[in-house]
Amino acid sequence: MAEGETESPGPKKRGPYISSVTSRSVNLMIRGVVLFFIGVFLALVLNLLQIQRNVTLFPPDVIASIFSSAWWVPPCCGTASAVIGLLYPCIDRHLGEPHKFKREWSSVMRCVAVFVGINHASAKVDFDNNIQLSLTLAALSIGLWWTFDRSRSGFGLGVGIAFLATVVTQLLVYNGVYQYTSPDFLYVRSWLPCIFFAGGITMGNIGRQLAMYECKVIAENLIKNEEGRKYLLYRKAR
Fold first, then answer.
1. How far is the C-alpha of 114 from the C-alpha of 194, rounded, in Å?
2. What is the Cα–Cα distance from 14 to 195, expressed in whole angstroms?
3. What is the enclosing helix (H) or strand (E) of 180?
4. What distances in angstroms separate CA 211 from CA 92, 99, 156, 171, 215, one per listed residue?
5. Of 63, 80, 199, 229, which one has the fewest beta carbons inside 10 Å?
6. Which of 207, 181, 171, 179 is closest to 85 using CA atoms?
7. What is the pLDDT of residues 65-105, one digit of tens each?
8. What are the tens digits of pLDDT across the range 157-204?
9. Where are the transmembrane segments (predicted)?
10. Other CB atoms within 10 Å distance of the CB of residue 111
């Protein structure tokens, strides 16, 4: 080959840092999609329960899905679930307080079951007045946090989510998008913040578990790659 000629460059290998960043971005996107669909599913099931008990009323012209809920409710809940589920582990990482309390899928599934039960109680159980119902649901929601979370960041985020979601709901009802029967807290029911708080804790737990599973898979892959690299070096040395 002539001196001036150079070999055609092959596909360049990505450095470990770029590969790691790309892998994290892809994993983050996958987690977001999973959380979105979990949120959509829970929204369909729980919203159907509320409508069957006439707790929420939508105008006839916006009833557009097979589960008899407004078409925009599941996507909005799915988006909120993805944001919350990604935010919880991110806050844990920035605070330097990794959440290690009851980190297994069985605990997460029990948390989801309790959350559905709290929502079910808000629609099915009859109380003498709304104050009793609100206090009961508040106690159950805090009990859910204590049983499955117990972190200061989780409690703070749950309160913030409940406040923000209640304000948004108030604005939606005020503008006639839908309405609540027998509102006793401005335009909504007084127990609604409790549901939002419990929902935030639940999606936060799911997001943390997905993040922990992702870290576990990445660590296992790194170990396998390192073992493979050492094996190749050993074969070359021989």
1. 13
2. 46
3. strand 179-180
4. 11, 11, 20, 33, 6
5. 229
6. 207
7. 444 456 778 888 999 999 999 999 889 888 877 667 667 88
8. 999 999 999 999 888 888 877 777 777 767 677 888 999 999 999 999
9. 28-49, 69-88, 131-148, 155-174, 186-206
10. 24
Identify the burial level of 140 via C-beta atoms within 10 angstroms of its C-beta, where 0-12 means exposed, 13-18 middle and 19 or more buried: middle
User: Which residues in 7-139 belong to E strands, given as ranges?
Assistant: 56-57
48: confidence class by pLDDT, cuts 50, 70, 90: confident
Record the pTM.
0.74
Element (H, E) at 179: strand 179-180
Task: Of 204, 208, 218, 206, give the one whose Cα is nearest residue 27.
Answer: 218
Task: For residue 37, count CB atoms less than 10 angstroms from its CB and return exposed for 0-12, middle for 13-18, buried for 19 or more.
Answer: middle
Within the chain, how many helices (H) and strands (E) appear? 6, 2
Nearest to 92 by CA among 48, 33, 156, 10: 156
